[in-house]
Write a structure and sequence with these properties.
This protein is an alpha/beta fold. It contains 13 helices and 20 strands. The protein has two domains: 4-199 and 317-430, 3-Layer(aba) Sandwich (Aminopeptidase); 202-314, Alpha-Beta Plaits (2-Layer Sandwich). Strand 18 (373-374) and strand 19 form a beta hairpin. The chain binds zinc ion (2 copies). One zinc ion is lined by residues 107, 109, 144, 186.
């Protein structure tokens, strides 16, 4: 019976041996970026790799998701999931963007499927899997980036999805019902090799539509009703509220105009926006979302336009499980050295949002970061320079943490399961999110 340390060394050696192949997966996905719920090529690649590795899997979950399941050979125990996110962003100026769709891996998710595969190479090594109890579930999840809202609303209307984030939809589908805890490694361009800790913002996603009346912009503008002006007034009103946002609530309010009119010679009658309200706690989120809705109403009222706001349940704040974080931190330090590991306090909020936060409401998990990127996240210059860190070190650290959890009869995993106190059950989560979904309509002409 090998020691835990010997098992970790066996996993590291197995990953090291197949390093080029594992990094190759990341490079292939980088060259084939696909946005949320359209990740067909990436999904096929995952299924091909699972097949080659002898991992039984189920595909087609929330359109493109893939769930594998590997049995430890030392008896029953909890199930630990290792995730990779399938989707890219859209950044047209990115060096590796798709010419047709504008999709680009400007958040480094192409490294995640690879570091998930790498972790599986490690835990499935002969001197390792024989001595693990319970199960390991590698899961490729669609649509973490909450973008292209209008297209996802169509998918929802067609009955293909209900929630617009991949892990949200997986929770609804029951994909995580036989999973007890989870982990993922996300790339970062900050100055560390491996990092963990901190939280993230919750958010509300808004699809906003102003409807006015078209008319000849030169000949009869007085006959029109300018929906673009309504939107402009709304944006000014939102900016006028910024002084009310408290620093400790890490509020971010931002958005894009997705349609500003159809022809320059006509008064714009159909104007749409995708908007985002983020806050670090749910009370602030509800309050700030209401303020922003009021601002959109103000725009409609000013010109007498019709307004429709579709409020879509976004993500919830992140929560790292303390025991899993401690195990991961120890492994990270052993792997890359103490100075190259960053541990953030649980209260540190980076300002972004992730659907790992949604899953953290119902089960213990960790969301570590791996360095190796340069540039600004979501920017045209965000690229991976050091795949050894972003893929290989991340894979090894996750494999080592799975070993800690599932070796020795899965003692540690059982302890995590017994002591973690998730704020919600799956049913409470679904109820909470469904109650946040609403369509606000306002008639500015009769306001
Ligand atoms: Zn991102
Ligand atoms: Zn990301």
């Amino acid at each position: 019976m090998p020691t835990i340390e010997e098992m970790k060394q066996a996993a590291i050696a197995a990953i090291e041996e197949r390093k080029e192949e594992i990094i190759g997966v990341a490079r292939t996905i980088l060259q084939n970026p696909e946005t949320g719920f359209t990740e067909q090529k990436t999904s096929r690649l995952v299924q091909q790799k699972f097949g080659e590795m002898g991992i039984p899997f189920q595909g087609g979950l929330a359109i493109t998701g893939v769930k594998g399941m590997v049995q430890g050979k030392a008896g029953p125990g909890p199930t630990v999931a290792v995730f990779g996110e399938l989707d890219s962003l859209r950044v047209l100026e990115h060096p590796f963007h798709d010419d047709v769709t504008g999709a680009a891996h400007a958040c480094g998710h192409h490294c995640q499927v690879a570091n998930m595969m790498g972790a599986m190479v490690g835990v499935m090594a002969p001197g390792v899997i024989d001595h693990l109890s319970g199960r390991i579930a590698p899961i490729a999840v669609p649509a973490e980036e909450f973008i292209e809202v209008e297209r996802r609303m169509r998918l929802r209307d067609e009955g293909k999805i209900e929630f617009m984030g991949g892990k949200q939809e997986f929770i609804k589908l029951g994909v995580f019902d036989d999973v007890d805890m989870a982990m993922i490694s996300h790339t970062s361009s900050e100055q560390f090799k491996l990092g963990i800790g901190g939280t993230s913002n919750g958010h509300v996603v808004k699809f906003v539509q102003f409807t006015g009346r078209g008319a000849h912009a030169g000949g009869a503008p007085h006959m029109g009703l300018n929906a673009l002006n309504a939107a402009m007034i709304a944006l000014s009103a939102i900016n006028a509220n910024r002084e009310t946002f408290r620093d400790q609530d890490t509020v971010r309010v931002h958005g894009i105009l997705t349609r500003g009119g159809d022809a320059v010679s006509a008064v714009p009658s159909n104007v749409t926006l995708e908007w985002r309200v983020r806050s670090g706690n749910l009370d602030a989120l509800v309050g700030n979302s209401g303020k922003v809705d009021r601002c959109f109403r103000a725009g409609a009222l000013a010109v007498g336009a019709q307004l429709s706001i579709t409020n879509i349940p976004g993500y919830l704040p992140m929560r790292n499980n303390a025991i899993m974080q401690e195990l991961y931190t120890r492994n990270a330090r052993e792997l890359v050295g103490e100075d190259a590991v960053l541990v953030r306090p649980a209260t540190h909020n980076g300002g972004g949002s992730t659907d790992m936060g949604d899953l953290a409401q119902i089960m213990p998990l960790i969301h570590p970061y791996c360095g190796g990127a340069t540039g600004t996240g979501h920017g045209a210059d965000y690229v991976i320079k050091d795949y050894d860190t972003a893929v290989i070190a991340a894979a090894k650290a996750m494999a080592m943490t799975v070993i800690d959890l599932l070796a020795d009869g899965a003692q540690k995993a059982r302890e995590v399961k017994a002591t973690d106190r998730p704020p919600m059950t799956r049913e409470q989560y679904l109820k909470f999110q469904r109650e946040r979904a609403e369509v606000v309509r306002f008639d500015g002409a009769n306001g």
